[in-house]
Write a structure and sequence with these properties.
209 residues; alpha/beta; 3 helices; globular
Length: 209
């Protein structure tokens, strides 16, 4: 039987982890069986190497669903990477409050706050893709290699490019609607195991539920 609570799910492979079990930051939530692979750095350093400009002062969150596949070098850029566009200058004066005799409590005025990053279930994020603050990626979506995701991605949609744009849907609308109703990722481990061959085959009509 599978075990979502182990860190290294593959014998002898220290580059692939179940990401949930490496997370210590309470502002990052990862679902069961979501995997991260890193052949350049220690994958357990995901919080430091891949979740960037994620400062506590913003209270923003990274939420990743179950059964996602995150490739090496994928990055999640949070709000403190932004510079406010409401000012006459993009220079972050509030960040240097001491030098410019500004109020420390207003430091977040240096950037525009666009919200959390939310990744659905069964999402595949390709090599060195970048997801920006405020973006929601729907269930079953695929993010292409080196893509820069600046806008929400609908469920079961493949996107790529800079900025990322839709390439095509993975399935027809009826199949997508059925998958979103079924939410197989929320099934019990036993039920998923019973349906693995059908899930792999792509024949939704054969699922036992």
């Amino acid at each position: 039987m599978s075990n979502s609570k182990i860190l290294y799910p593959r014998t002898g492979d220290t580059q692939t982890i179940y990401l949930k079990n490496a997370i210590t930051n309470s502002s990052i939530t990862v679902g069961d069986y979501t995997m991260y692979n890193d052949f350049e750095n220690n994958p357990t350093d995901f919080e430091n190497n891949n979740v960037l400009y994620h400062y506590p002062i913003n209270h923003d969150k990274l939420i990743i669903g179950k059964f996602c596949s995150i490739a090496c070098g994928a990055k999640f850029l949070f709000n403190s990477a932004n510079h406010t566009l409401a000012s006459l200058s993009t220079y972050p004066f509030p960040l240097f409050f001491e030098e410019w005799e500004l109020e420390k409590k207003n430091v977040t005025e240096a950037w525009d706050n666009k919200g959390d990053i939310i990744i659905g279930n069964d999402v595949w994020i390709g090599y060195e893709a970048v997801v920006l603050a405020g973006v929601t990626i729907g269930d079953g979506a695929i993010i292409g290699t080196h893509a820069v995701v600046t806008k929400d991605v609908p469920p079961y949609t493949i996107v790529g490019g800079v900025p990322a744009k839709p390439i095509r849907k993975r399935f027809d609308d009826e199949t997508i609607a059925q998958l979103l109703r079924l939410k197989w990722w929320d099934w019990s481990e036993e039920k998923i195991s019973q349906n693995i061959q059908v899930i792999k085959s792509g024949r939704i009509e054969q699922l036992r539920y």
